[in-house]
Design brief:
There is one protein chain. It contains two helices and no strands. By secondary structure, the chain is an all-alpha fold. Helix 1 packs antiparallel against helix 2. The longest helix has 32 residues. The chain is elongated and about 55 Å long.
Length: 63
Amino acid sequence: MAQMPKDSTIQEVDALVLALKRRNIYSRLNELQAQLQDAKRKNDAQGIIAITQEIIGLKRILG
C-alpha cells in the first residue's frame, strides 16, 4: 500500500485488497490439496472430511 499513488481511488484500493484475498485463498487451497493427498495416503477419513469441507468453503468464496 505504501507504493500506491496518493491519488488512488477507493475502487483501486478495493480491487487490490480483493486480489490479495484471492491470492491468499489460492495459496491456502494449494496447501489443503497437499494435506488432502497426505490424509488419503494415511486413510484418515476424518482428516479427509475436514480438509474437503474447508476446500469447498474456500471455493464458494471464490465463486
